[in-house]
């Protein structure tokens, strides 16, 4: 089966948009810029932009165990609508992928109902309890993409160090949600100015940064590849920057919300603004932008974290941390940073496709002949208001409801299959 996408704009090496066509044969890109082959199904790109399908290293799909928040089906439909074709599912499910049996169970569910490519993490400790170490070599052999206890920081240095030593032996990446439990202080938002105005307990930046500082030294000693989740503070940026300068094998991600929002934007005690790590100060936000531009931070990850309306209804204390991210990431970043000329389109695409794929050595994230046909066609001129009622995700928990943005995916192709197509007047 062949598909021929005509009349689309693609980025060249120089970052300029050039008109071209793409031929897909079975699951791969067979030709770029060629003539229409006989018998191919023709897709008209209408002059829209085609990006490599986005790759997200940090997502929560909730199944198995928390299907009331999201399922693999709803989560991957949400990803497809947002233009993501490869997503890495964090292990805070029930059961946790801490054994071959549990990992196989999760991979079976993915096989049954995922509409985009889902690569599961294995956990670093049994049940993400931070105590007994998992057998990561075994989990890697059975399909775990990388290793993390996301949702919780690894408290014991020896546990982290020993897992890093094992990871180094098999060239696996250790991925860390950095949070020192003794420094959380029951906080629900950043310990800064706004939490005091709202009378809410704060989480200081050191809660994250001290654990990153520890981990980069452990990674150096173990010779391991280490990736830092959702960097949020300027001190954390400094720890990563210094580590990179010292030649330590560290990479880092930042979430769209930490680039777009800061603590003073939080309007009220509203749990749709509660996520971990929290929105920090303006100087932290500025430092995250600087870090992306100078390469200290390597990529953007959504940390898509759906929760129910009931859980998020009644103020920050007591509500779970997390916001959804798939269906708003590209338009928000494109509108606020590319249209405004802070970033180029090529930078944004690199941070959402090329770089994340490279961090995990994945053969995706690029448009090249012979490569997997993972493509996102985006109407860069289309303007639309973000409406939570229209989300494919079960999660409606976002602070961006009502925001206007341009640059909406209109078709997503994963492994040669159309997995999302805009329907006019949908819902
Ligand atoms: N980011 C969040 O605020 N929440 C995540 C866990 C995590 O990634 O920290 C979740 O699973 O809900
Ligand atoms: Zn996390």
From TrEMBL:
Under PROSITE patterns, the record lists:
DIHYDROOROTASE_1, DIHYDROOROTASE_2
Looking at the record, the residues that make up the Dihydroorotase catalytic domain are 50-236
Q: Which cofactor does it need?
A: Zn(2+)
Query: Enzyme class, one word?
Result: hydrolase
Task: Provide any one GO MF term from the record.
Answer: zinc ion binding
The residues that the entry says bind substrate are 60-62, 92, 276, 307, 321-322
Q: In which pathway does it act?
A: Pyrimidine metabolism; UMP biosynthesis via de novo pathway; (S)-dihydroorotate from bicarbonate: step 3/3
Q: InterPro entries, alphabetically?
A: DHOase, DHOase/Allantoinase_Hydrolase, DHOase_cat, Dihydroorotase_CS, Metal-dep_hydrolase_composite, Metal_Hydrolase
Q: How is the cofactor bound?
A: Binds 2 Zn(2+) ions per subunit.
Q: Please provide the record's keywords in A-Z order.
A: Hydrolase, Metal-binding, Pyrimidine biosynthesis, Zinc
Query: Catalyses which reaction?
Result: (S)-dihydroorotate + H2O = N-carbamoyl-L-aspartate + H(+)
**GO BP annotation list:** 'de novo' UMP biosynthetic process; purine nucleobase catabolic process
For binding Zn(2+) 2, which residues are annotated in this chain's numbering? 150, 177, 230
- Pfam families from the entry? DHOase
EC assignment: the record states 3.5.2.3
What do the Gene Ontology cellular component annotations say?
A: cytoplasm
**Which residues carry out catalysis?**
303
In terms of superkingdom, the source organism counts as Bacteria
Binding-site list for Zn(2+) 1: 58, 60, 150, 303
Function comment:
Catalyzes the reversible cyclization of carbamoyl aspartate to dihydroorotate.
The UniProt similarity line reads: Belongs to the metallo-dependent hydrolases superfamily. DHOase family. Class I DHOase subfamily.
What is the protein named? Dihydroorotase
- Gene source species: Ureibacillus manganicus DSM 26584
- Provide the organism lineage as a comma list: Bacteria, Bacillati, Bacillota, Bacilli, Bacillales
